[in-house]
Amino acid sequence: MIRMLTLRPGPVEVGGVRLRNHLILAAGILGTTGASLARQLRNGAGGVVTKSIGPVPLPGHAGPCLIPYGNGVLNAMGLPNPSAGFVDELETVGHEPVVVSIFGGSPEEFAEVGSWFVGRARGLELNLSCPHAQGYGSALGSDPAMVEDCTRAVVRLGLPVWVKLTPNVTDITAIGRAAERGGASALVAINTVRAMRIATGLRRPVLGNRYGGLSGRAIFPIAVRCVYELRAACSLPIIGCGGVSTAEDVIEMMMAGASAVEIGSAVLEDPVVFDTIARELYADGGIEPAEIVGCAHV
Ligand SMILES: Cc1cc2nc3c(=O)[nH]c(=O)nc-3n(C[C@H](O)[C@H](O)[C@H](O)COP(=O)(O)O)c2cc1C
């Protein structure tokens, strides 16, 4: 049996943010309060991204909003969030590696929401990729000019800006390059894959919103492909996201070109998944992590 690679443990800087390790909580998964963010850090996450926060409070879509599907999860939450009401949640975790995910319907709205978190977060992640929120997310994130403008508007605030990309486009590298032109510090790939199911007994779509986004193990090969393409086309650090659930997945994402990974759906299955993965991934005699980033590009 070939033994899996192990990495040398220790902090790492990715996209202007110093992380305790390479494993980051993805946006929208249990990241709705300061207490839940702190819990994931205690459970071994090297950094955490919050639920996406927007310009006005939103209740989210009507249910059903979340259904398990085979090796994945189909969701159409509809970006429920308390808007500016979230700012106080960061009081207890402000000194930790917390990145705030934000969204808006225009560059101005992105900049306004981002401004609430200056001095309170280590970085901002732009949700230009949610596939099921009208006028937000991938509605803007499929247009390279809009991605460039939103990125530039938030970069002016002076915090590191990570731009999270949608896989639901013909050429993800065109979007990645637009974020790079706008001054992003890192790319995050990917958000969920647009999808739907029909309840055959009811002859109706299962999700309240009809369409949603697929996440979890089922999308891992799509995420690896996107990271690989971005690595070949852009020079920004990439944070791989989508279906990561084991230490071996982390190594594979890094070989495709990721400098770190975000983990979402796997946390819903195993609340201490960061510790579980870290125990297998890191060893004192492990190799220098940077050595394998992008090594699959020949
Ligand atoms: C229930 C749920 C809520 C999510 N909410 C957000 C969100 O608020 N903002 C965002 O950028 N991505 C959100 N996502 C997408 C995840 O951050 C991640 O990009 C996606 O699930 C793929 O990673 P995974 O397979 O590890 O879950 C959400 C995903 C799920 C399953």
Describe the overall structure:
With 298 residues, the chain is of the alpha/beta class. It has a single domain, classed as Aldolase class I (TIM Barrel, Alpha-Beta Barrel). The chain is 28% helix and 20% strand. The protein has an 8-stranded parallel beta barrel with strand order 3-4-7-8-9-10-15-16, surrounded by 6 helices. It has a 4-stranded antiparallel sheet with strand order 5-6-14-11, with no helix packed on it. Helix 4 runs parallel beside helix 5. The longest helix has 14 residues. The radius of gyration is 18 Å and the shape is globular. The relative contact order is 0.18.
Arithmetic mean of pLDDT:
96
Tell me the structural class.
Answer: alpha/beta
Low-confidence stretches: none
Number of strands: 16
The total tally of domains equals 1
Gross morphology is globular
Per CATH, the architecture is: Alpha-Beta Barrel
What is the helix tally? 9
Please name the defining characteristics of this protein.
single chain; 298 residues; alpha/beta; TIM Barrel; eight-stranded parallel beta barrel; four-stranded antiparallel sheet; 9 helices; 16 strands; 20% strand; globular; binds flavin mononucleotide
Describe the SSE topology.
Layout: E1 12-14, E2 17-19, E3 23-25, H1 34-42, E4 47-49, E5 66-69, E6 72-75, E7 98-102, H2 107-115, E8 123-127, H3 138-141, H4 144-155, E9 161-165, H5 172-182, E10 186-189, E11 193-195, E12 198-199, E13 204-205, E14 212-215, H6 220-233, E15 238-241, H7 247-256, E16 258-263, H8 265-269, H9 273-281
Parallel strand pairs: 3-4, 3-16, 4-7, 7-8, 8-9, 9-10, 10-15, 15-16
Antiparallel strand pairs: 1-2, 5-6, 6-14, 11-14, 12-13
The protein binds flavin mononucleotide.
